[in-house]
Amino acid sequence: MWIQETLRLRPQTRGYHLITRQVIDAIPNLKSVKIGWLQVFILHTSASLTINENADPDVRIDFETAMNHAVPENLPYVHTLEGPDDMPAHVKASMMGSSVMIPIKNGQLLMGTWQGIYLCEHRDHASGRQIVMTVQGTNQTN
Hints:
This protein has 142 residues and is an alpha+beta fold. 21% of the residues lie in helices and 39% in strands. The strands form 2 sheets. It has a 5-stranded antiparallel beta sheet. A 3-stranded antiparallel beta sheet has the order 2-7-4.
């Protein structure tokens, strides 16, 4: 069985935003998957996806702080046409990644108790982001 859905996320402020519930809600047939995989892929080059701590909001603040330290905006970037946050956003997106893969069992994502899917927004004033979710698995009735 294959399922593919596209989700347009509303514009977010710069930072790390939990989108797990939105992803699950956008795949109504997820409950029919006995065993499989979900790939979540972002169709952008200045935002990324990751899986991490879903309970303490301080983790999201610390992610932003650490990434800004690792990829400062004041480097002498050549690609500057779209503003000073654009090239650092591209670098951060490449470091964090454009997709995550999550196992599925009995219609549920098999993530740890404290894990969630993050949209990592690296731009100061980004428009909404689009993600594609692809499920491969066996049907509950098989």
